[in-house]
């Protein structure tokens, strides 16, 4: 298939581009480069041995999106593009709703006009809200605790409604948990703008000397060491899950909409991850305990059995490998991608 990957220069998108090409698909990338650097593109070509066509546009630029669909002969779409910082979304809710919903609506219009009927959507475990039982299962009600999460809930609803009304559109909703790690080459990895919002890149930047110490938000949760438990999944496993979902839709043309969790099904605490990263890197990771953050859950992990049973997909990499691959990326690229 010839696959349009929106947000294909970003963290998860770039790894999925490599995996799609390795699986025999052709790829076209669209990215606004708001959360990504153009210097990732030659690294994608280096890793894949192929030219990767890239269109630097915003999906809300409807005329440019239309031109891409008219010229590129797209068979399917993997949709990552969107703003993604939970804290920032609370400060800039209008921008998040406008960007994330507007991008998806414009994409759907272009897909309909050009009869592209297959979409794999980058959703999130945030759609389970604050009260879901663990392990989290796809049949649980959806909710959210912040504007970013609500954009995911709303996009899932939009995609489901359009697919049911259209009768031909197929949608995979991939709800993933805490992506970490990097390509084993160390050539591509997570490179957040400014202060990292997530644990792993912050720990990596402390280890490499970019930041003085980590703040651990709360050590009084009802967990074995008092720090929150999260389901960390290697980005390479996550990329494989997108390819598996795409190929499942192709093999099941009768399917309209299906949600799958992508996670390991195991919780790892903040302090366990810090300890594992120190072991993998051989570097001390100084930290201090701070007050809990509003909205943080004590425990969050997936039931991945649906993806295992239906997609034949299973997370294969453990926490030690997640840390080793992150350190390989961060130590080789201490300042991230070149500007």
TrEMBL record:
SUPFAM superfamilies: NAD(P)-binding Rossmann-fold domains. Gene3D superfamilies: NAD(P)-binding Rossmann-like Domain, UDP-galactose 4-epimerase, domain 1. Signal peptide: none annotated. GO terms for molecular function: UDP-glucose 4-epimerase activity. One of its GO terms (cellular component) is cytosol. It catalyses: UDP-alpha-D-glucose = UDP-alpha-D-galactose. It comes from the Bacteria. Its cofactor is NAD(+). Its EC number is 5.1.3.2. Pathway: Carbohydrate metabolism; galactose metabolism. It is an enzyme of class 5 (isomerase). One of its GO terms (biological process) is galactose metabolic process. Keywords: Carbohydrate metabolism, Galactose metabolism, Isomerase, NAD. Residues 3-254 form the NAD-dependent epimerase/dehydratase domain. Belongs to the NAD(P)-dependent epimerase/dehydratase family. Homodimer. This is UDP-glucose 4-epimerase. It comes from Janibacter alkaliphilus.
